[in-house]
Amino acid sequence: MAEIPQRLEGPEIGRGVQAHRLADDLMVINMGPQHPSTHGVLRLVLTLEGETVLDCNPVVGYLHTGIEKNAEYRTWVQGVTFVTRADYLSPFFNELAYCLSVERLIGIEAPARAQAIRVMLCELNRIASHLVWIATTGLELGAISVMLYGFREREAIIDIFEAITGLRMNHAFIRPGGLVMDLPEGAEDSIRRMLLHLDARTDELEDLLSGNPIWIERNRGVGVLDAETCKAWGVTGPLLRAAGIPFDLRKTNPYSGYERYEFDVPTREEADCYARYEVRIAEIRESLRIVEQVLDSLPGGPVMEDDPKVAWPAQLEVGPDGIGNSEAYVRHIMEESMEALINHFKIVTQGINVPAGEVYTAVESPRGELGFFVVSEGGARPYRVRIKDPSFVHVQALPQMVTGGLVADVVASVASADPVMGGVDR
Amino acid sequence: MDAEQLAERLRGRFPDVIVARGEVTVTIARKELVDAIAFLRDEPELEFDLLSDASCTDWPGRDPRIWMAYHLYAMARHHRVRVKVGLPEGDLHVPTITALHPSANWHEREMFDFFGVIFDGHPDLRRIELPDEWEGHPLRKDEPLGGVPTRYHGAHVPPPDERGL
User: Fold this and answer.
1) Which end of chain A is more exposed for a tag (fewer CB within 10 A), N or C?
2) Going from the N-terminus, what domains does chain A have, and what CATH number goes with each?
3) pLDDT grade for A1, boundaries at 50, 70 and 90
Protein backbone atom coordinates (compact mmCIF):
# COMPACT_ATOMS: atom_id res chain seq x y z
CA MET A 1 0.00 0.00 0.00
CA ALA A 2 1.35 3.36 -0.96
CA GLU A 3 2.03 5.73 1.86
CA ILE A 4 -0.66 8.35 2.25
CA PRO A 5 0.75 11.86 2.56
CA GLN A 6 0.03 13.70 5.79
CA ARG A 7 -1.47 16.57 3.91
CA LEU A 8 -2.19 16.68 0.21
CA GLU A 9 -0.55 19.63 -1.50
CA GLY A 10 -2.28 21.72 -4.10
CA PRO A 11 -4.76 24.52 -3.93
CA GLU A 12 -8.01 22.70 -3.39
CA ILE A 13 -7.49 18.97 -3.06
CA GLY A 14 -9.22 17.59 -0.03
CA ARG A 15 -9.71 20.95 1.59
CA GLY A 16 -11.88 20.70 4.66
CA VAL A 17 -11.15 17.03 5.13
CA GLN A 18 -8.87 16.12 7.98
CA ALA A 19 -5.63 14.64 6.73
CA HIS A 20 -6.02 11.50 8.79
CA ARG A 21 -9.31 10.73 7.10
CA LEU A 22 -7.70 10.60 3.69
CA ALA A 23 -7.44 6.85 3.88
CA ASP A 24 -7.78 4.31 1.13
CA ASP A 25 -11.56 4.33 1.05
CA LEU A 26 -11.85 8.04 0.37
CA MET A 27 -11.73 9.22 -3.18
CA VAL A 28 -11.15 12.77 -4.38
CA ILE A 29 -12.62 13.27 -7.80
CA ASN A 30 -13.10 16.17 -10.15
CA MET A 31 -16.59 16.71 -11.41
CA GLY A 32 -16.06 19.09 -14.27
CA PRO A 33 -14.97 21.45 -15.62
CA GLN A 34 -16.15 19.52 -18.65
CA HIS A 35 -18.75 17.27 -17.14
CA PRO A 36 -21.98 17.50 -19.17
CA SER A 37 -24.06 18.33 -16.13
CA THR A 38 -22.01 21.12 -14.62
CA HIS A 39 -23.72 23.96 -16.45
CA GLY A 40 -20.79 25.17 -18.44
CA VAL A 41 -17.39 25.11 -16.86
CA LEU A 42 -18.02 24.61 -13.18
CA ARG A 43 -15.62 22.26 -11.45
CA LEU A 44 -16.51 20.52 -8.21
CA VAL A 45 -13.79 18.74 -6.27
CA LEU A 46 -15.69 16.03 -4.44
CA THR A 47 -14.36 13.91 -1.63
CA LEU A 48 -16.33 10.68 -1.65
CA GLU A 49 -16.65 7.80 0.72
CA GLY A 50 -18.34 5.24 -1.45
CA GLU A 51 -21.35 7.08 -2.84
CA THR A 52 -21.50 9.65 -0.06
CA VAL A 53 -20.18 13.16 -0.54
CA LEU A 54 -18.00 14.11 2.42
CA ASP A 55 -16.76 17.36 1.04
CA CYS A 56 -17.37 19.56 -1.97
CA ASN A 57 -15.19 22.40 -3.20
CA PRO A 58 -16.47 24.40 -6.13
CA VAL A 59 -13.70 25.80 -8.32
CA VAL A 60 -14.67 28.67 -10.57
CA GLY A 61 -12.90 31.10 -12.88
CA TYR A 62 -12.81 29.15 -16.13
CA LEU A 63 -15.09 31.67 -17.82
CA HIS A 64 -13.56 34.84 -16.40
CA THR A 65 -13.55 37.49 -19.12
CA GLY A 66 -12.78 40.67 -17.19
CA ILE A 67 -16.09 42.39 -17.89
CA GLU A 68 -15.70 44.64 -14.85
CA LYS A 69 -12.23 45.79 -15.90
CA ASN A 70 -13.24 46.23 -19.53
CA ALA A 71 -16.18 48.43 -18.59
CA GLU A 72 -13.75 50.92 -17.02
CA TYR A 73 -12.18 51.54 -20.41
CA ARG A 74 -15.36 52.08 -22.40
CA THR A 75 -18.02 54.76 -22.50
CA TRP A 76 -21.12 54.50 -20.37
CA VAL A 77 -23.18 53.35 -23.33
CA GLN A 78 -20.61 50.81 -24.49
CA GLY A 79 -20.75 49.38 -20.98
CA VAL A 80 -24.14 47.89 -21.80
CA THR A 81 -22.66 45.65 -24.48
CA PHE A 82 -20.23 44.25 -21.91
CA VAL A 83 -22.49 43.68 -18.96
CA THR A 84 -25.18 42.00 -21.06
CA ARG A 85 -22.70 39.18 -21.63
CA ALA A 86 -22.19 38.37 -17.94
CA ASP A 87 -25.15 36.09 -17.25
CA TYR A 88 -25.90 35.14 -20.82
CA LEU A 89 -29.23 33.52 -20.03
CA SER A 90 -30.65 36.71 -18.60
CA PRO A 91 -29.07 39.49 -20.67
CA PHE A 92 -31.94 41.95 -20.22
CA PHE A 93 -31.54 41.85 -16.45
CA ASN A 94 -27.86 42.73 -16.66
CA GLU A 95 -28.68 45.60 -19.00
CA LEU A 96 -31.55 46.79 -16.83
CA ALA A 97 -29.59 46.80 -13.58
CA TYR A 98 -26.66 48.59 -15.22
CA CYS A 99 -28.84 51.17 -16.95
CA LEU A 100 -30.90 51.83 -13.81
CA SER A 101 -27.61 52.48 -12.00
CA VAL A 102 -26.42 54.93 -14.66
CA GLU A 103 -29.81 56.64 -14.70
CA ARG A 104 -29.76 57.01 -10.94
CA LEU A 105 -26.28 58.52 -11.13
CA ILE A 106 -27.45 61.04 -13.74
CA GLY A 107 -30.71 61.59 -11.87
CA ILE A 108 -33.14 60.70 -14.67
CA GLU A 109 -35.85 58.13 -15.16
CA ALA A 110 -36.64 56.42 -18.41
CA PRO A 111 -39.95 57.38 -20.09
CA ALA A 112 -43.04 55.36 -19.13
CA ARG A 113 -43.17 53.44 -22.40
CA ALA A 114 -39.51 52.44 -22.12
CA GLN A 115 -40.07 51.23 -18.57
CA ALA A 116 -43.08 49.14 -19.56
CA ILE A 117 -41.19 47.55 -22.46
CA ARG A 118 -38.25 46.87 -20.15
CA VAL A 119 -40.54 45.03 -17.75
CA MET A 120 -42.04 43.04 -20.60
CA LEU A 121 -38.66 42.04 -22.03
CA CYS A 122 -37.37 41.10 -18.60
CA GLU A 123 -40.36 38.89 -17.86
CA LEU A 124 -40.10 37.17 -21.23
CA ASN A 125 -36.42 36.73 -20.48
CA ARG A 126 -37.29 35.22 -17.10
CA ILE A 127 -39.53 32.68 -18.82
CA ALA A 128 -36.82 31.88 -21.37
CA SER A 129 -34.27 31.44 -18.59
CA HIS A 130 -36.57 29.18 -16.57
CA LEU A 131 -37.25 27.14 -19.71
CA VAL A 132 -33.53 26.61 -20.21
CA TRP A 133 -33.34 25.65 -16.56
CA ILE A 134 -36.08 23.06 -16.89
CA ALA A 135 -34.58 21.80 -20.14
CA THR A 136 -31.07 21.33 -18.79
CA THR A 137 -32.32 19.93 -15.50
CA GLY A 138 -34.44 17.45 -17.41
CA LEU A 139 -31.43 16.44 -19.47
CA GLU A 140 -29.27 16.01 -16.40
CA LEU A 141 -31.83 13.86 -14.63
CA GLY A 142 -32.50 11.72 -17.69
CA ALA A 143 -35.67 13.33 -19.05
CA ILE A 144 -34.40 14.10 -22.52
CA SER A 145 -37.77 14.95 -24.01
CA VAL A 146 -38.11 17.74 -21.46
CA MET A 147 -34.82 19.13 -22.75
CA LEU A 148 -36.15 19.19 -26.29
CA TYR A 149 -39.47 20.76 -25.33
CA GLY A 150 -37.87 23.32 -23.04
CA PHE A 151 -35.46 24.56 -25.68
CA ARG A 152 -38.19 24.51 -28.31
CA GLU A 153 -40.45 26.83 -26.30
CA ARG A 154 -37.54 29.05 -25.44
CA GLU A 155 -36.80 29.40 -29.13
CA ALA A 156 -40.22 31.00 -29.62
CA ILE A 157 -39.25 33.71 -27.10
CA ILE A 158 -35.81 34.11 -28.64
CA ASP A 159 -37.49 34.70 -32.01
CA ILE A 160 -39.49 37.54 -30.47
CA PHE A 161 -36.28 38.99 -29.02
CA GLU A 162 -34.65 38.77 -32.42
CA ALA A 163 -37.56 40.56 -34.06
CA ILE A 164 -37.42 43.34 -31.44
CA THR A 165 -33.70 43.79 -30.86
CA GLY A 166 -32.09 42.20 -33.90
CA LEU A 167 -30.23 39.68 -31.76
CA ARG A 168 -31.11 36.40 -30.08
CA MET A 169 -28.92 37.05 -27.03
CA ASN A 170 -26.71 39.82 -25.68
CA HIS A 171 -29.07 42.42 -27.05
CA ALA A 172 -27.69 45.68 -25.60
CA PHE A 173 -31.21 46.94 -26.20
CA ILE A 174 -31.76 48.69 -22.88
CA ARG A 175 -29.62 51.81 -22.74
CA PRO A 176 -29.09 54.53 -20.16
CA GLY A 177 -32.14 56.79 -20.61
CA GLY A 178 -34.46 54.25 -22.19
CA LEU A 179 -34.31 51.83 -25.07
CA VAL A 180 -32.44 51.73 -28.35
CA MET A 181 -35.67 51.96 -30.27
CA ASP A 182 -39.37 51.26 -30.15
CA LEU A 183 -41.05 47.92 -30.74
CA PRO A 184 -41.28 46.99 -34.40
CA GLU A 185 -44.64 46.83 -36.11
CA GLY A 186 -46.63 43.76 -35.22
CA ALA A 187 -44.52 42.88 -32.17
CA GLU A 188 -47.42 43.19 -29.74
CA ASP A 189 -49.58 40.80 -31.73
CA SER A 190 -46.88 38.21 -32.07
CA ILE A 191 -46.15 38.40 -28.33
CA ARG A 192 -49.84 37.89 -27.55
CA ARG A 193 -49.95 34.85 -29.81
CA MET A 194 -46.87 33.47 -28.14
CA LEU A 195 -48.35 33.98 -24.66
CA LEU A 196 -51.28 31.72 -25.51
CA HIS A 197 -48.92 29.15 -26.92
CA LEU A 198 -46.58 29.33 -23.91
CA ASP A 199 -49.42 29.00 -21.45
CA ALA A 200 -50.45 25.71 -23.01
CA ARG A 201 -46.87 24.49 -23.30
CA THR A 202 -46.16 25.23 -19.64
CA ASP A 203 -49.07 22.92 -18.78
CA GLU A 204 -47.53 20.33 -21.05
CA LEU A 205 -44.14 20.53 -19.33
CA GLU A 206 -45.82 20.29 -15.97
CA ASP A 207 -47.86 17.28 -17.10
CA LEU A 208 -44.67 15.57 -18.14
CA LEU A 209 -42.89 16.12 -14.84
CA SER A 210 -45.15 16.77 -11.88
CA GLY A 211 -46.57 13.28 -11.47
CA ASN A 212 -43.52 11.52 -12.83
CA PRO A 213 -42.23 9.06 -10.20
CA ILE A 214 -38.62 9.29 -11.39
CA TRP A 215 -38.73 13.08 -11.35
CA ILE A 216 -40.16 13.05 -7.83
CA GLU A 217 -37.67 10.43 -6.68
CA ARG A 218 -34.71 12.43 -7.99
CA ASN A 219 -35.86 15.78 -6.58
CA ARG A 220 -37.90 15.26 -3.44
CA GLY A 221 -35.85 15.83 -0.29
CA VAL A 222 -32.68 16.41 -2.30
CA GLY A 223 -30.38 19.41 -1.91
CA VAL A 224 -32.26 20.91 1.00
CA LEU A 225 -31.24 24.46 1.90
CA ASP A 226 -33.40 25.88 4.68
CA ALA A 227 -34.22 29.55 5.08
CA GLU A 228 -31.62 30.29 7.76
CA THR A 229 -28.83 28.69 5.73
CA CYS A 230 -29.99 30.60 2.67
CA LYS A 231 -29.75 33.90 4.52
CA ALA A 232 -26.35 33.13 6.01
CA TRP A 233 -24.98 32.23 2.57
CA GLY A 234 -26.64 35.15 0.82
CA VAL A 235 -28.87 32.91 -1.28
CA THR A 236 -31.82 34.65 -2.95
CA GLY A 237 -34.25 34.04 -5.77
CA PRO A 238 -36.15 30.78 -6.37
CA LEU A 239 -33.90 28.93 -3.90
CA LEU A 240 -34.92 31.23 -1.07
CA ARG A 241 -38.56 31.28 -2.12
CA ALA A 242 -38.57 27.48 -2.19
CA ALA A 243 -37.51 27.69 1.47
CA GLY A 244 -40.64 29.63 2.36
CA ILE A 245 -39.45 33.23 2.28
CA PRO A 246 -41.46 35.41 -0.12
CA PHE A 247 -38.51 37.64 -0.93
CA ASP A 248 -38.75 39.16 -4.37
CA LEU A 249 -37.22 42.56 -5.14
CA ARG A 250 -40.02 43.27 -7.59
CA LYS A 251 -42.37 43.33 -4.59
CA THR A 252 -40.15 44.46 -1.73
CA ASN A 253 -38.26 47.23 -3.53
CA PRO A 254 -40.13 47.81 -6.80
CA TYR A 255 -38.28 49.34 -9.75
CA SER A 256 -39.26 50.16 -13.33
CA GLY A 257 -42.92 50.37 -12.36
CA TYR A 258 -43.36 46.78 -11.12
CA GLU A 259 -45.73 48.12 -8.46
CA ARG A 260 -48.23 48.77 -11.27
CA TYR A 261 -48.63 45.09 -12.13
CA GLU A 262 -50.49 42.40 -10.28
CA PHE A 263 -48.58 39.21 -9.62
CA ASP A 264 -47.92 36.77 -6.80
CA VAL A 265 -44.64 35.61 -5.35
CA PRO A 266 -44.84 31.80 -5.32
CA THR A 267 -43.26 30.08 -2.35
CA ARG A 268 -42.89 26.53 -1.08
CA GLU A 269 -41.87 25.22 2.32
CA GLU A 270 -39.89 22.09 1.51
CA ALA A 271 -36.66 23.87 0.46
CA ASP A 272 -35.64 20.92 -1.74
CA CYS A 273 -35.04 20.54 -5.47
CA TYR A 274 -38.68 19.67 -6.08
CA ALA A 275 -39.86 22.84 -4.34
CA ARG A 276 -37.53 24.86 -6.59
CA TYR A 277 -39.05 23.18 -9.61
CA GLU A 278 -42.54 24.09 -8.44
CA VAL A 279 -41.52 27.67 -7.68
CA ARG A 280 -39.99 28.16 -11.12
CA ILE A 281 -43.00 26.71 -12.93
CA ALA A 282 -45.26 29.01 -10.91
CA GLU A 283 -42.98 31.93 -11.76
CA ILE A 284 -43.33 31.25 -15.46
CA ARG A 285 -47.09 31.64 -15.04
CA GLU A 286 -46.69 34.85 -13.03
CA SER A 287 -44.39 36.27 -15.69
CA LEU A 288 -46.96 35.45 -18.35
CA ARG A 289 -49.48 37.40 -16.28
CA ILE A 290 -47.18 40.40 -16.07
CA VAL A 291 -46.43 40.41 -19.80
CA GLU A 292 -50.13 40.34 -20.53
CA GLN A 293 -50.74 43.28 -18.22
CA VAL A 294 -47.91 45.23 -19.83
CA LEU A 295 -49.41 44.67 -23.26
CA ASP A 296 -52.85 45.72 -22.03
CA SER A 297 -51.56 48.94 -20.50
CA LEU A 298 -48.65 49.81 -22.77
CA PRO A 299 -48.32 53.59 -22.66
CA GLY A 300 -47.44 55.63 -25.75
CA GLY A 301 -44.72 58.22 -26.10
CA PRO A 302 -40.98 58.15 -26.59
CA VAL A 303 -38.72 55.28 -25.52
CA MET A 304 -35.66 57.44 -24.83
CA GLU A 305 -35.07 60.31 -22.45
CA ASP A 306 -35.51 63.54 -24.38
CA ASP A 307 -32.10 65.00 -23.63
CA PRO A 308 -29.44 65.39 -26.34
CA LYS A 309 -26.75 64.99 -23.66
CA VAL A 310 -28.00 61.51 -22.74
CA ALA A 311 -29.89 60.05 -25.68
CA TRP A 312 -28.07 58.27 -28.47
CA PRO A 313 -28.42 60.74 -31.33
CA ALA A 314 -29.18 58.35 -34.16
CA GLN A 315 -32.44 56.84 -35.21
CA LEU A 316 -31.69 53.17 -35.27
CA GLU A 317 -33.38 50.41 -37.14
CA VAL A 318 -32.90 46.70 -37.54
CA GLY A 319 -31.02 45.97 -40.72
CA PRO A 320 -29.75 42.74 -42.24
CA ASP A 321 -26.83 42.56 -39.80
CA GLY A 322 -28.41 43.81 -36.60
CA ILE A 323 -29.14 47.30 -35.41
CA GLY A 324 -27.70 50.25 -37.32
CA ASN A 325 -28.28 53.90 -38.13
CA SER A 326 -31.36 54.37 -40.26
CA GLU A 327 -30.80 55.60 -43.79
CA ALA A 328 -32.97 58.67 -43.23
CA TYR A 329 -30.87 59.62 -40.23
CA VAL A 330 -27.59 59.23 -42.10
CA ARG A 331 -28.96 61.53 -44.80
CA HIS A 332 -30.03 64.02 -42.12
CA ILE A 333 -26.59 64.37 -40.55
CA MET A 334 -24.60 64.08 -43.76
CA GLU A 335 -26.65 66.41 -45.95
CA GLU A 336 -29.04 68.54 -43.92
CA SER A 337 -27.89 69.56 -40.45
CA MET A 338 -24.37 70.49 -39.37
CA GLU A 339 -25.53 70.82 -35.73
CA ALA A 340 -26.93 67.31 -35.76
CA LEU A 341 -23.66 66.03 -37.16
CA ILE A 342 -21.65 67.80 -34.43
CA ASN A 343 -23.90 66.42 -31.70
CA HIS A 344 -23.72 62.95 -33.22
CA PHE A 345 -19.94 63.16 -33.36
CA LYS A 346 -19.64 64.33 -29.75
CA ILE A 347 -21.98 61.71 -28.28
CA VAL A 348 -20.64 58.85 -30.36
CA THR A 349 -16.94 59.54 -29.89
CA GLN A 350 -16.90 61.00 -26.37
CA GLY A 351 -20.00 59.44 -24.86
CA ILE A 352 -22.34 60.80 -22.26
CA ASN A 353 -21.16 62.39 -19.04
CA VAL A 354 -22.26 61.01 -15.72
CA PRO A 355 -21.85 62.99 -12.48
CA ALA A 356 -19.61 61.64 -9.73
CA GLY A 357 -21.13 59.32 -7.18
CA GLU A 358 -21.87 55.71 -6.43
CA VAL A 359 -25.03 53.62 -6.44
CA TYR A 360 -25.97 50.03 -5.76
CA THR A 361 -28.96 48.89 -7.78
CA ALA A 362 -30.48 45.46 -7.41
CA VAL A 363 -33.04 43.75 -9.63
CA GLU A 364 -34.72 40.37 -9.32
CA SER A 365 -33.09 38.24 -11.98
CA PRO A 366 -34.32 34.70 -12.72
CA ARG A 367 -31.67 33.48 -10.31
CA GLY A 368 -32.01 35.99 -7.49
CA GLU A 369 -30.70 39.37 -6.50
CA LEU A 370 -28.55 40.80 -9.27
CA GLY A 371 -26.77 43.89 -8.00
CA PHE A 372 -24.70 46.51 -9.76
CA PHE A 373 -22.39 48.73 -7.77
CA VAL A 374 -21.48 51.50 -10.17
CA VAL A 375 -19.02 54.25 -9.30
CA SER A 376 -18.47 57.40 -11.34
CA GLU A 377 -15.81 60.03 -10.82
CA GLY A 378 -17.64 62.26 -13.27
CA GLY A 379 -16.92 61.99 -16.96
CA ALA A 380 -17.42 59.75 -19.93
CA ARG A 381 -16.33 56.41 -18.48
CA PRO A 382 -17.40 54.35 -15.48
CA TYR A 383 -14.83 54.36 -12.70
CA ARG A 384 -15.93 50.98 -11.46
CA VAL A 385 -18.67 48.55 -12.45
CA ARG A 386 -19.10 45.81 -9.93
CA ILE A 387 -21.49 43.00 -10.82
CA LYS A 388 -22.86 40.99 -7.94
CA ASP A 389 -24.28 38.00 -9.69
CA PRO A 390 -26.59 35.61 -7.81
CA SER A 391 -24.99 32.56 -9.46
CA PHE A 392 -21.65 33.41 -7.82
CA VAL A 393 -23.25 33.34 -4.40
CA HIS A 394 -25.24 30.19 -5.14
CA VAL A 395 -22.23 28.22 -6.32
CA GLN A 396 -20.56 29.17 -3.06
CA ALA A 397 -23.52 27.66 -1.21
CA LEU A 398 -23.45 24.38 -3.18
CA PRO A 399 -21.42 22.49 -0.51
CA GLN A 400 -24.23 23.26 1.96
CA MET A 401 -26.60 21.41 -0.35
CA VAL A 402 -24.59 18.40 -1.37
CA THR A 403 -22.36 17.50 1.58
CA GLY A 404 -23.62 14.36 3.26
CA GLY A 405 -25.75 13.39 0.29
CA LEU A 406 -25.19 10.94 -2.52
CA VAL A 407 -22.98 11.72 -5.48
CA ALA A 408 -25.91 11.24 -7.87
CA ASP A 409 -27.80 13.96 -5.99
CA VAL A 410 -24.99 16.42 -6.65
CA VAL A 411 -26.24 16.59 -10.23
CA ALA A 412 -29.79 17.36 -9.11
CA SER A 413 -28.62 19.93 -6.57
CA VAL A 414 -26.36 21.81 -8.97
CA ALA A 415 -29.14 21.83 -11.53
CA SER A 416 -31.65 23.15 -9.01
CA ALA A 417 -29.36 26.06 -8.14
CA ASP A 418 -29.34 27.04 -11.85
CA PRO A 419 -25.88 28.62 -11.87
CA VAL A 420 -24.78 30.34 -15.06
CA MET A 421 -21.02 30.43 -15.25
CA GLY A 422 -20.99 33.58 -17.36
CA GLY A 423 -22.46 35.32 -14.34
CA VAL A 424 -20.27 33.56 -11.81
CA ASP A 425 -17.00 34.41 -13.48
CA ARG A 426 -17.88 37.60 -15.35
CA MET B 1 -38.45 53.53 7.50
CA ASP B 2 -37.16 55.63 4.61
CA ALA B 3 -33.52 56.47 3.95
CA GLU B 4 -33.57 59.65 6.06
CA GLN B 5 -35.14 57.93 9.05
CA LEU B 6 -32.72 55.04 8.73
CA ALA B 7 -29.80 57.46 8.59
CA GLU B 8 -31.14 59.25 11.66
CA ARG B 9 -31.39 55.93 13.49
CA LEU B 10 -27.83 55.02 12.50
CA ARG B 11 -26.41 58.38 13.55
CA GLY B 12 -27.03 57.34 17.14
CA ARG B 13 -24.29 54.75 16.72
CA PHE B 14 -22.06 55.97 13.87
CA PRO B 15 -20.71 59.49 13.45
CA ASP B 16 -20.35 59.45 9.65
CA VAL B 17 -23.68 58.66 7.96
CA ILE B 18 -24.71 60.26 4.68
CA VAL B 19 -27.71 59.92 2.40
CA ALA B 20 -27.15 60.31 -1.34
CA ARG B 21 -29.45 59.26 -4.17
CA GLY B 22 -31.68 57.53 -1.67
CA GLU B 23 -28.88 55.34 -0.35
CA VAL B 24 -27.50 55.37 3.16
CA THR B 25 -23.74 55.14 3.50
CA VAL B 26 -21.95 54.59 6.79
CA THR B 27 -18.22 55.21 6.80
CA ILE B 28 -16.28 53.64 9.64
CA ALA B 29 -12.72 52.95 10.68
CA ARG B 30 -11.18 49.62 9.86
CA LYS B 31 -10.93 48.45 13.47
CA GLU B 32 -14.67 48.98 14.00
CA LEU B 33 -15.71 46.89 11.01
CA VAL B 34 -16.61 43.60 12.67
CA ASP B 35 -18.42 45.30 15.55
CA ALA B 36 -20.33 47.51 13.15
CA ILE B 37 -21.46 44.65 10.90
CA ALA B 38 -22.49 42.65 13.98
CA PHE B 39 -24.39 45.63 15.36
CA LEU B 40 -26.21 46.17 12.05
CA ARG B 41 -27.12 42.51 11.89
CA ASP B 42 -28.27 42.01 15.47
CA GLU B 43 -29.77 45.33 16.51
CA PRO B 44 -33.58 45.16 16.68
CA GLU B 45 -35.22 47.56 14.18
CA LEU B 46 -32.19 47.29 11.89
CA GLU B 47 -31.65 43.56 11.30
CA PHE B 48 -29.42 43.77 8.25
CA ASP B 49 -29.32 40.00 7.93
CA LEU B 50 -28.35 39.58 4.27
CA LEU B 51 -24.95 40.46 2.85
CA SER B 52 -25.96 41.51 -0.65
CA ASP B 53 -22.49 42.27 -1.85
CA ALA B 54 -18.99 43.09 -0.74
CA SER B 55 -16.62 44.79 -3.14
CA CYS B 56 -14.08 47.57 -3.30
CA THR B 57 -12.80 50.40 -5.43
CA ASP B 58 -9.22 51.48 -6.05
CA TRP B 59 -8.38 55.18 -5.85
CA PRO B 60 -4.64 55.53 -6.45
CA GLY B 61 -3.28 58.85 -5.27
CA ARG B 62 -5.91 59.14 -2.58
CA ASP B 63 -5.46 58.30 1.04
CA PRO B 64 -6.92 55.81 1.89
CA ARG B 65 -6.40 54.14 -1.45
CA ILE B 66 -8.77 51.16 -1.42
CA TRP B 67 -12.37 51.69 -0.36
CA MET B 68 -14.31 48.65 0.76
CA ALA B 69 -18.08 48.71 0.23
CA TYR B 70 -20.31 46.22 2.04
CA HIS B 71 -23.92 46.24 0.92
CA LEU B 72 -26.29 44.93 3.55
CA TYR B 73 -29.98 44.27 3.21
CA ALA B 74 -32.67 43.80 5.84
CA MET B 75 -34.96 41.01 4.69
CA ALA B 76 -37.80 41.87 7.06
CA ARG B 77 -37.67 45.64 6.56
CA HIS B 78 -36.52 45.93 2.96
CA HIS B 79 -33.91 48.58 3.50
CA ARG B 80 -30.29 48.76 2.51
CA VAL B 81 -27.14 50.24 3.90
CA ARG B 82 -23.63 50.56 2.54
CA VAL B 83 -20.71 50.30 4.95
CA LYS B 84 -17.47 51.79 3.73
CA VAL B 85 -13.98 51.30 5.08
CA GLY B 86 -10.83 52.92 3.71
CA LEU B 87 -7.54 51.02 3.55
CA PRO B 88 -4.27 52.96 3.28
CA GLU B 89 -1.77 52.02 0.61
CA GLY B 90 0.87 49.58 1.82
CA ASP B 91 -1.37 48.24 4.57
CA LEU B 92 -4.25 46.57 2.78
CA HIS B 93 -5.39 44.53 5.76
CA VAL B 94 -8.96 44.30 6.94
CA PRO B 95 -10.64 41.82 9.30
CA THR B 96 -12.82 39.18 7.69
CA ILE B 97 -16.55 39.20 8.34
CA THR B 98 -17.03 35.54 7.42
CA ALA B 99 -17.89 34.72 11.04
CA LEU B 100 -20.92 37.01 10.78
CA HIS B 101 -21.85 36.43 7.16
CA PRO B 102 -20.45 33.16 5.77
CA SER B 103 -21.31 34.37 2.26
CA ALA B 104 -18.55 36.98 2.57
CA ASN B 105 -16.06 34.16 2.02
CA TRP B 106 -16.01 34.22 -1.77
CA HIS B 107 -16.53 37.96 -2.02
CA GLU B 108 -13.43 38.45 0.11
CA ARG B 109 -11.48 35.94 -1.94
CA GLU B 110 -12.46 37.86 -5.03
CA MET B 111 -11.24 41.15 -3.56
CA PHE B 112 -8.00 39.47 -2.58
CA ASP B 113 -7.70 38.16 -6.12
CA PHE B 114 -8.48 41.40 -7.94
CA PHE B 115 -7.27 44.07 -5.51
CA GLY B 116 -4.80 42.35 -3.20
CA VAL B 117 -6.73 43.14 -0.04
CA ILE B 118 -5.70 40.82 2.81
CA PHE B 119 -8.57 39.64 4.98
CA ASP B 120 -7.17 38.82 8.41
CA GLY B 121 -8.70 35.67 9.84
CA HIS B 122 -10.19 34.48 6.54
CA PRO B 123 -10.50 30.68 6.56
CA ASP B 124 -9.34 30.11 2.99
CA LEU B 125 -7.78 33.19 1.43
CA ARG B 126 -6.59 32.32 -2.07
CA ARG B 127 -7.36 33.44 -5.60
CA ILE B 128 -10.78 32.55 -6.91
CA GLU B 129 -11.19 33.72 -10.51
CA LEU B 130 -7.60 33.89 -11.71
CA PRO B 131 -5.10 31.02 -11.82
CA ASP B 132 -3.15 30.50 -8.61
CA GLU B 133 0.13 31.43 -10.25
CA TRP B 134 -1.18 34.76 -11.56
CA GLU B 135 0.92 37.78 -10.61
CA GLY B 136 -0.64 41.09 -9.67
CA HIS B 137 -4.15 42.23 -8.93
CA PRO B 138 -5.76 43.23 -12.21
CA LEU B 139 -8.67 45.38 -11.05
CA ARG B 140 -6.28 47.87 -9.52
CA LYS B 141 -6.17 51.06 -11.51
CA ASP B 142 -2.42 50.86 -12.16
CA GLU B 143 -2.75 47.45 -13.85
CA PRO B 144 -3.14 47.86 -17.61
CA LEU B 145 -6.14 46.41 -19.40
CA GLY B 146 -3.95 44.93 -22.10
CA GLY B 147 -4.91 44.36 -25.70
CA VAL B 148 -3.48 44.61 -29.17
CA PRO B 149 -3.90 47.23 -31.90
CA THR B 150 -6.38 46.28 -34.58
CA ARG B 151 -6.17 47.05 -38.28
CA TYR B 152 -9.50 48.02 -39.77
CA HIS B 153 -9.93 49.31 -43.33
CA GLY B 154 -6.26 50.20 -43.42
CA ALA B 155 -6.39 52.23 -40.19
CA HIS B 156 -4.82 51.10 -36.93
CA VAL B 157 -7.15 51.16 -33.94
CA PRO B 158 -5.15 51.23 -30.69
CA PRO B 159 -6.09 48.88 -27.84
CA PRO B 160 -8.90 50.18 -25.62
CA ASP B 161 -6.72 51.47 -22.79
CA GLU B 162 -4.67 53.61 -25.20
CA ARG B 163 -7.57 55.25 -26.98
CA GLY B 164 -7.67 58.13 -24.51
CA LEU B 165 -11.39 58.72 -24.49
Assistant:
1) N
2) 69-305+357-425 (1.10.645.10), 316-350 (no CATH)
3) very low
Closest partner CB to B129 (pick from A245, A359, A425) = A425
Q: Which residues of B touch A64 (CB under 8 A)?
A: 129-130
Give me the residues of B, 39-98, that contact A with CB < 8 A. 49-53, 55, 57-58, 69, 71, 73, 75, 78, 80, 82
Tell whether B162 is covered by a domain.
Answer: no
Separate counts of helices (H) and strands (E) for chain A: 16, 10
pLDDT of residue A15 exceeding 60, the answer is no
Which residue from B52, B102, B160 is facing A233, i.e. has the nearest CB? Answer: B102
Nearest CA in chain A to B71: A360
Parent domain of B110: 3-130
> Residue A2's CB: how many other CB atoms inside 10 A?
5
Mean pLDDT of A373-397: 92
Instruction: Give the Å distances, CA to CA, from A196 to A115, A191, A200, A284, A290.
Output: 24, 9, 7, 13, 13
A299 contact B CB<8A: no
Query: Does B122 reside within a domain?
Result: yes
Q: Assess whether pLDDT exceeds 70 at residue B165.
A: no
Averaged pLDDT, A268-275: 91
**pTM given for the model:** 0.89
- Residue range A195-243, pLDDT digits in tens: 988 988 998 888 888 888 888 988 988 888 989 999 999 999 999 999 9
Q: What is the pLDDT of residues A28-49, one digit of tens each?
A: 888 878 776 667 788 888 888 8
B69, B34, B56: which is closest to B116 by C-alpha?
Answer: B56
Dihedral angle at the C-alpha atoms of B126, A374, B69, A126, nearest 10 degrees? -70
Question: Which are the contacts of B100, defined by CB distance < 8 A and separation ≥ 6?
Answer: B34, B37, B38, B41
Could you tell me where the beta strands, DSSP code E, fall in A346-397? 357-365, 368-376, 384-388
- The beta-carbon neighbor of B103 closest among A357, A359, A393 is A393
pLDDT digits (tens, 9 = 90+) for A104-147: 999 888 999 999 999 999 999 999 999 999 999 988 888 888 88
Domain count, chain B: 1
CA distance B106 to chain A (A): 7
B154 part of a folded domain:
no
How close A229 comes to chain B (CA, Å)?
9
